[in-house]
Task: inverse folding
C-alpha cells in the first residue's frame, strides 16, 4: 500500500512539474491601434519575423519575405529597425503622434519614423495581434499591411 501511495505522489509531482514548466508562447489577441502608446509598446517590444505584406491599389498585391524582420526597441529613445534580406530599410527613432485614423475616423497614435537612406518621413499604424501575428499597416488608402510573428 505504501508503494502505491509513493508512486501516486511521485506521479502527481511529475505532472505538476511538467504543467508548470510548459512554456506558453501564445500571445493574446488584442486590438492595438486604439490603445495608449504604453500598451502598444508592451505588446510589440522585441524582434519580429516579417513574413509578407499585402495591399496596394487593389488591396491584393502580396510580397513574401525571407530573412526579414522588424525590431522595436523602447527605452530613453524608442527606435525601429526594418531589415529586408540583410538590407536595412528603416533604422530610426520612433516619434509617436496622434492623427485621425483613415480606417476608423478616430484619433489614434501612429508610429513615425524616417527611411534609412533617404531620411523621408513615414508612419505605421500598429493595428493588432491576431493568432500570434502582429499586423502593422501603412495608414494610407493604398498602403500595405505587414504580417509578423515573434522571432
Result:
Amino acid at each position: 500500500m505504501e508503494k502505491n501511495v509513493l508512486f501516486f505522489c511521485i506521479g502527481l509531482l511529475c505532472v505538476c512539474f511538467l504543467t508548470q514548466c510548459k512554456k506558453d508562447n501564445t500571445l493574446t489577441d488584442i486590438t492595438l491601434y486604439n490603445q495608449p502608446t504604453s500598451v502598444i509598446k508592451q505588446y510589440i517590444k522585441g524582434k519580429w519575423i516579417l513574413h509578407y505584406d499585402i495591399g496596394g491599389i487593389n488591396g491584393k498585391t502580396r510580397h513574401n519575405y525571407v530573412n526579414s524582420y522588424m525590431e522595436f526597441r523602447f527605452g530613453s529613445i524608442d527606435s525601429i529597425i526594418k531589415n529586408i534580406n540583410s538590407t536595412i530599410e528603416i533604422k530610426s527613432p520612433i516619434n509617436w503622434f496622434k492623427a485621425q485614423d483613415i480606417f476608423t475616423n478616430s484619433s489614434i497614435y501612429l508610429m513615425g519614423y524616417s527611411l534609412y537612406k533617404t531620411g523621408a518621413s513615414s508612419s505605421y499604424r500598429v493595428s493588432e495581434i491576431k493568432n500570434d501575428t502582429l499586423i502593422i499597416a501603412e495608414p494610407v488608402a493604398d498602403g500595405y499591411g505587414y504580417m509578423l510573428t515573434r522571432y
Q: What stands out?
A: The two ends are 51 Å apart (CA to CA).
